[in-house]
Amino acid sequence: MFRFVSHRLMSAVPTVFIVVTLSFFLMRLAPGGPFNLERPLPPATMANIMATFQLDQPLYVQYGTYLKNALIGDFGPSYIYRDYSVAELIMQALPYSITLGLWALAFALVGGVTAGVIAALRQNGWVDYAVMSVATVGVTIPNFVVGPLMSLVFAVILSLVPAGGWGDGGFRNLVLPVIALGLPQLAVFARLTRGSMIEALRTDHIRTARAYGLPARSVVVTHAMRGAMLPIVSYLAPCCAALLTGSTVVETIFTIPGVGRYFVEGALNRDYTLVMGTVILISVFIIVFNLLVDILYALLDPRIRHD
Description:
The protein starts with a helix and ends in a 7-residue tail after the last helix. Helix 4 (86-121) packs across helix 7 and helix 5 (126-140) packs across helix 7 (171-201). It has helices at 2-29, 43-52, 59-70, 86-121, 126-140, 143-157, 171-201, 204-211, 216-244, 248-253, 259-268, 272-300. The relative contact order is 0.15. By secondary structure, the chain is an all-alpha fold. The radius of gyration is 24 Å and the shape is globular.
């Protein structure tokens, strides 16, 4: 296992390098720039600004400088928030995104797995059809539609919860963004759990367990669930990375000061360093969660062994 983990960590280095390289040059190829305003600045002022941020240097020099600084955790200054570095902005925003993402992950995982198991045990019944219908709706309707609708109904019309803002981070402030962020993932978990549970219940060792007269709860929870969780674990890596780094849409709709909001503002204002910092953060999250998923695979399925 140690050898496997070390190999995966070594392979993560070129992956991050490729992501950083592609993101760097694609950002520069996009039209416009961080200081291209509707009312152009005087040439002398623009030249001073470009020299201050080293944007007047050749592109390969800028790339080398950024890569060298990124290796020590220096992602450069933000072009929009002049008094802050990108690292400071990310450290300020990350706790909000992680808190929101953890609640959304718990909501999606518990609700989705529970609904999927119930649907599998009631296969082809009205409960199964109802769960899958709701899951299909949850997958097809994007959260930028669900979020404003819930805000309109529960905040504006019914006045049950605030329409946006972090507030004190309590239940009333988080309930709408958590549901909007976690609902599509809950639907995916429900569909994955139903399919894998139906397949697990038809395997030979489950038939053997039933033939020995084991209680139905023990057969489902102890034996079938272990094999049925493998597709869920596989999907956890991209799901966790997306939820824990924050949804750009949900954080923007509910005015939550998380990483997603900075990514949107950075992209709109061509803040190269801010966008690059958030891209690197998401890449690292995905790599780490993929590694954790592979380790969980070996723990859940005894047939999988990593040397």
